[in-house]
Specification:
Blueprint lengths: L3 H17 L2 H14 L4 H16 L3 H14 L6 H15 L1 H6 L11 H16 L6 H28 L3 H14 L6 H15 L2 H14 L33
């Protein structure tokens, strides 16, 4: 049963099952192949196919574990870029519910680990394999995930601010600025920070946040210092948001 001909037949049947959508049957065959052909090219391919079959049957944890095993055991595999891409895709689709319901959901502290794991996998892919055929799509997904995670953090900060939980609002807004400084929503995050610190009587932190807001968004629709009046339109100073002293709080 371990002859090459038998393995070839088993793998061909597994591929037929994958192509026809018979994923449960394919999984059983691929698990056998992975064990019998360990250390071979066929074994590596079976592992990747197995991860795909788990993903298609909504077994996310199994798919991720299988991909992690492949990445650990085959660091020099020519299919490493695909493994990283698949890991990103599995995690990305796991959190599509968060992305899709962001505007309407009730705010709650929820696990964003899946989207963060997707971000890490896609970043590793584009850094290690910039010329991979999967890298262009990975870059697009990185931008989407980054902007959405930032939007979620700001959504939570706004939620806390509206309920007068100013410490929590300032902390969440600051976290968004520190981690996602190039995301579109950072203007509002800086505004929430400045207003929260103002409510808390923390004038130095308020003024610091306002300074960074004014420098980076001189015609901000959120806020402009100076007696509550809008500043005159002007070009951005280009001052990096990292001028915000994240350790000052």
């Amino acid at each position: 049963p371990n002859s090459q001909a038998a393995l070839d037949k088993l793998y061909a049947d597994a591929k037929d099952d994958l192509n026809s959508g018979s994923y449960d049957r394919a999984i059983k065959s691929l698990e056998k192949i992975e064990g019998r052909a360990a250390g071979t090219t066929m074994g590596q391919q079976a592992t990747l196919d197995l991860a795909w079959a788990y993903y298609k049957t909504a077994e996310r944890a199994q798919a991720i574990a299988t991909l992690d095993r492949f990445i650990k055991l085959n660091p020099s595999s020519p299919a490493m870029d695909y493994a990283l891409y698949m890991k990103g895709i599995v995690n990305f689709n796991e959190d599509l519910g968060l992305f899709g319901r962001l505007a309407n959901q009730d705010v709650a502290e929820r696990d964003q680990q899946a989207s963060r794991e997707a971000l890490l996998a896609f970043r590793q892919l584009v850094e290690q394999f910039p010329e991979s055929k999967y890298s262009a799509e990975a870059r697009t997904r990185i931008n989407f995930i980054t902007n959405t995670l930032a939007a979620y953090e700001i959504h939570v900060a706004r939620y806390y601010f509206n309920r007068k939980a100013y410490v929590a609002a300032a902390n969440r807004a600051q976290a968004a600025v520190a981690e996602f400084q190039y995301a579109p929503g950072i203007e509002e995050a800086l505004f929430i920070m400045s207003e929260s610190y103002d409510k808390l009587g923390l004038t130095l932190l308020r003024d610091d946040a306002r300074r960074v807001l004014d420098k980076n968004f001189p015609d901000s629709s959120q806020y402009a210092s100076g007696g509550g009046k809008r500043k005159k339109p002007g070009g951005s100073s280009g001052e990096p948001l990292t001028q915000w002293r994240a350790d000052s709080s």
